[in-house]
């Protein structure tokens, strides 16, 4: 029986990809070149330093490690400045209605995000109080597909892994939930999230009772 819902943040609750792009674009422009949204696609899911290397190669620029670290720090500051201006309008479609159902059914909730900026984003969109536990990048040592972030969520909610339902938009996140012995709802495309137990394009119109009937 499912007693808790564990949610990834980016791609499930909000979409911060545009803010990463704007921060990288700002940095690239400062170096004298530009990056397109199409180019930015290859940076998704890539670490900050690796993304920086890809961008510098694109711009034909070579820098010392010290200079790279300074640029990466500046990019993150730009990104934080952008996400701090997020509002409830940035919440993805269907999320607010779905969480109203969750509250009504008294289902425990936890955030399971590898982002170290998760709390800032939740505060900006007004959803900090919607989670009984928040596990973010400051509380874990291993990223997804390691299940650590979700196992810690279950632990803080005092439920067993098999009593948890994970909501994820990324392949590595779905694998993390599965590796933790949990059922997983994929948010995105069925042909991509093949390991998920059930997949929805988004949370619009998703009924909790029907969902749990499918899962159980």
TrEMBL record:
Record SUPFAM superfamilies: HAD-like
Cofactor note: Binds 2 magnesium ions per subunit.
Any Pfam family matching the protein: Hydrolase
Entry annotation: catalytic residues: 8, 10
Enzyme Commission number, as recorded: 5.4.2.6
Keyword presence, DNA damage: no
BP GO annotations: carbohydrate metabolic process
Site (Important for catalytic activity and assists the phosphoryl transfer reaction to Asp8 by balancing charge and orienting the reacting groups): 113, 144
Binding site for substrate: 8-10, 24, 43-48, 51, 75, 113-117, 144
Catalytic activity: beta-D-glucose 1-phosphate = beta-D-glucose 6-phosphate
Keyword field: Carbohydrate metabolism, Cytoplasm, Isomerase, Magnesium, Metal-binding, Phosphoprotein
GO cellular component, as recorded: cytoplasm
Gene3D superfamilies according to UniProt: HAD superfamily/HAD-like, Putative phosphatase, domain 2
Name of the protein this chain belongs to: Beta-phosphoglucomutase
InterPro entries to which the protein is assigned, alphabetical: B-phosphoglucomutase_hydrolase, Beta-PGM, Beta-PGM-like, HAD-like_sf, HAD-SF_hydro_IA, HAD_sf, PGP-like_dom2
Molecular function terms, GO-annotated: beta-phosphoglucomutase activity; magnesium ion binding
Cofactors named for this entry: Mg(2+)
Binding of Mg(2+), residues: 8, 10, 168-169
Subcellular location field: Cytoplasm
Chief location: cytoplasm
Native organism taxonomy: Bacteria, Pseudomonadati, Bacteroidota, Cytophagia, Cytophagales
EC category: isomerase
Family: Belongs to the HAD-like hydrolase superfamily. CbbY/CbbZ/Gph/YieH family.
